[in-house]
Design brief:
417 residues, 47% helix, 7 strands, globular, Butyryl-Coa Dehydrogenase, subunit A, domain 1, 3 domains, binds flavin-adenine dinucleotide
């Protein structure tokens, strides 16, 4: 009998709620029993993890962040992050794409519920989200989140170049989104775009819209190939919107709310980290099993008695514990209008997870040795997948460093003039 993996965050030690224990357990059991074995094929063929999504739907996890009053699991920010990390342990590409899907519910659910809205705006928001949540829960609809465009918009420095022209009956969307995970596989693309009233209007960040574009709408196309270093199962090809008409009810949020959420709820950008937190744990877990001679399908050769191996594992454990502790603190204190200290810590946590996941994976390969980097084992995939974390906008490792340095030395609005 194979031993079941233990929780990444022991419920007693980390003081998890019942819901957190339930959802993280469901995710881990699914990951261990189903996703782990499929990950190699998705990676090798760079194909979307369709079977995993069927399992996620059957386990009720497509609605993990849909509020309970709509029939979902009602996971808050922290509960979602802990759940997604358990998925990332077994298939990074599934966890990362799942994040794009879940964001459509987390942003419109838990986050939006904590933002101030006039009654009329709140009612408008209720009508939109009811429509999207019903699709997810009743039809198993999957949402993607095309954000990046290859310019400064995804980094948060410029308005999105993808535009939504307001007409009497709805929106006409035009633009190009690069690295659109789930492209060709999602049922809806939750596109970030700039509202304009006339075709030649200059877009503004304040007028960012979040609109679901059906995959089969006229004018939607997926172009280019997808043959990257890592996270290959995300199938993040380029999306083109050419005069795509979308009725008003496809909005995911009323006008102005996305901009307000991005300003007031900065931790929303941390949702890319759990995939990589899971990968860091997986690289560490693999190394321990390998050195103990417990890898399934390999001769039970132990390597744990060598002091150099013990030292390397100690180094990995230090890094993993530091990363988990900082990440856990940061996801625990996430809230609207966090303190400056909490924001600086969020950037620190983001940087730490993304860089340490790769550092732990490379230490794992060095420590386990040549056989561990064969493609028959998961470590080389973890190594490649882990390298992608620092590249994810808007909080890339570089931008986190920029923000941290500037944020530490300057108060809001301060200049040297
Ligand atoms: C596996 C994977 C899946 C992805 N999935 C999605 C997805 O589903 N949806 C989505 O929208 N995006 C997705 N992305 C895209 C990701 O967030 C980046 O936008 C993408 O990697 C493209 O980056 P780029 O090289 O064009 O960035 P560039 O804009 O060229 O930036 C390159 C680097 O320069 C730095 N930089 C950028 N702007 C500034 C600035 N103004 N000041 C200082 N430094 C700056 C940043 O560190 C950045 O990493 C995914 C990326 C990967 C790797």
């Amino acid at each position: 009998m194979t031993n079941k993996d233990i929780a990444m965050f022991n419920p007693t030690d980390w003081n998890l709620t019942e819901k957190q224990v339930d959802l993280t357990t469901r995710a881990r059991e699914l990951g261990e029993s189903k996703f782990a074995a499929r990950a190699e094929k998705y990676d090798r063929e760079a194909i979307f993890p369709t079977e995993n999504y069927v399992d996620l739907r059957d386990a009720g996890l497509l609605g993990v962040c849909i509020p309970e009053q709509f029939g979902g699991c009602g996971a808050d920010f922290k509960t979602y992050m802990l759940t997604a990390a358990e998925i990332g342990r077994y298939c990074g590409a599934t966890a990362l794409t799942f994040n794009m899907h879940v964001s459509s519910c987390l942003w419109t659910g838990f986050l939006a519920d904590q933002l101030p809205m006039e009654d009329e705006l709140r009612a408008e928001h209720e009508s939109y989200r009811k429509h999207h949540y019903a699709r997810i829960l009743n039809e198993g609809a999957i949402y993607a989140q095309p954000f990046s465009e290859g310019g400064a918009a995804a980094a948060g420095f410029k308005a999105f170049g993808t535009t939504a022209l307001r007409t009497e009956k709805g929106w006409i969307i035009n633009g190009k989104k690069i690295f659109a995970s789930l492209s060709g596989h999602a049922d809806y693309y939750g596109a970030l775009c700039s509202e304009i009233q006339t075709p030649d209007e200059e877009p503004s960040r304040r007028h960012t819209m979040y609109i679901a574009v059906p995959n089969d709408a006229e004018g939607v196309s997926v172009v280019g190939d997808w043959d990257p270093l890592g996270m290959r199962g995300t199938v993040s090809r380029t999306l083109i919107f050419k005069d795509v008409f979308v009725p008003f009810e496809e909005q995911l949020m009323p006008r102005g709310i996305y901009f307000s959420a991005a300003q007031k709820w900065p931790h929303m950008f941390m949702t890319l980290t759990p995939s990589y937190m899971g990968i860091a744990q997986a690289a560490y877990d693999f190394t321990v099993k390998y050195l103990r001679g417990e890898i399934e399908g390999m001769p039970p050769v132990k390597r744990r008695m060598f002091p150099t191996k013990q030292l390397a594992v100690a180094q990995m454990r230090l890094m993993l514990e530091q990363t988990k502790a900082l990440w856990f603190q940061s996801i625990s204190e996430a809230r609207p209008e966090p303190s400056k200290d909490a924001i600086l810590r969020a950037w620190t946590a983001q940087y730490t997870v993304m860089e340490n996941a790769n550092e732990i994976a490379q230490l794992a390969i060095r420590t386990c040795g040549g056989q561990s980097m064969l493609r028959s084992l998961p470590l080389e995939r973890l190594y490649r997948d882990s390298r992608c974390g620092s590249l994810m906008l808007p909080w890339t490792a570089e931008l986190c460093m920029d923000k941290l340095g500037k944020g530490t030395l300057y108060e809001d609005g301060e200049t040297d003039d």
